[in-house]
Amino acid sequence: MTVTGPTPGFIEMTSVTPPTGRGALAKREARLAWGLLLPTILSVSLVVILPLLAIFWISFKPVGLADLRPPAPVLRESLRGRDGAYQLDYRIRNSSQDKPLGDVRFVDTLPDGLSIAGPLPEACALDDQTLTCAFGDVEGGWRDRFQIDVTLQGDPDALEDAAEGSKPDASAISDSILTNSEFSLENFARIFDGDEFWFVLWVTLFYTVFGTVGALVFGLFAAMLLNKSFKGQGILRGLYLFPYVAPVIAVAFTWITLFDPFSGSANALLIQMGVTQEAINFFGQRPLALIMVTIFEIWRYFPLSFLFILARMQSIDTDMYEAADMDGASPFQKFWYLSMPQLLGILSVLFLLRFIWTFNKFDDIFLLTGGNAGTRTLTVNVYEQAFAISNIGAGAAVAVVIFACLILFSVFFFKYVSREEGL
Asked: What is the largest CA-CA distance in the chain?
């Protein structure tokens, strides 16, 4: 601000506009910052973005496992004969049964001491010791075989090894379904056709929501229990972490053995106590199998919530609780009005992370039930589409649906939930 006085007794105030634009130092700092971030950006692009783009690309292609390798000519060469009568035997075919090949040809360099004695097929020509055969365009399932009479000058065994050891160079023009510009919605139409997809989506949401909420609730109770100092507290905390740090394959097969309908301890205990008259197939009947895999999810991952919530509880100022005790607040009132507002932030973050991780969970369900008995989630469906029935395109389409669901959930979370919690 500047003050000027053109007339005695009057003061005129004018504002000074700050300089616009960035200086040379700021520009150099920006270039340096981008230069330092460039390796990280490239690494993230290679690790995350490129595979994601590849999945989107494949989801619009009706591609199976057999289509991952483009069609190509398959050539076999052998030297046959005895007592001075020898023939070069060539067998060539199209590796694909339904896709054509263009400009099929091969070039074979004959070893010294081996000479062509008989007439050549129309498709072949000889230039010195180089044999070239061109077959043009061929259809899917095409194959051909021909023999050429030859003479040997030298050791037949050595020449046979030399002839079969020099691999002919076969080439062709082929159209790969992965790289061409043809796209289709066939994969999405296939996965959305019928009620099966919507049942799988419902199972996924049930497993994700109840698994996430259950892990948070049990983690909260465990943190409240161990937020007090007592003898053996450290040992108990270590035991609480066991489900999370134990190998998933070990704990999964332990649960399968424990709840086995024929030799499991759980069934034997229930029958002896008179709770049931016959063995229960916990992981083999609906809807009990879905409930069991959800309980397994809660049991295995509540320690993660327990660690974060306990760390946040121990950082809360104890003066508030002392003041609440003086005012005669009950334990529930102290928890609801003092602890919960302090824990809402970490609970929101844990809910976001656990929801995404549980929605993408594959190994737990696959090890426990294999997706049977009404426990097939979207991630299990990706595996079955891509590898069980060899439909890579449909598996990629299901993966795109999973990505879209998580994007919608994240947008909803950051637009509504995180705003309310101040994240």
From this structure: 130
